[in-house]
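Ticket #4471: structure export looks truncated?
Reporter: QA, pipeline team
Priority: medium

Steps to reproduce: submit the single chain below to the structure queue and open the exported record.
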Amino acid sequence: MITSYFNVIDDHLYMPLQLAYEVAAKHNYNSSVLSAVQNLLLVSTQTAKNICQRVT
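Actual output as written to the record:
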């Protein structure tokens, strides 16, 4: 049952990623929008690591 749960979570995490790639491709490399997203990803990655550490 836990494997099914992780599969669902995995799907929910990676499905939006493909859409993000498609949207990002429509912006210039130096776009302020892309810079903002990059900064947010750095913060969210650290947040996710902190949560994982707490859970374990």
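Status: closed, not a bug. The export was complete when the record was re-opened. Leaving a note from the reviewer for reference: Helices lie at 2-24, 32-55.
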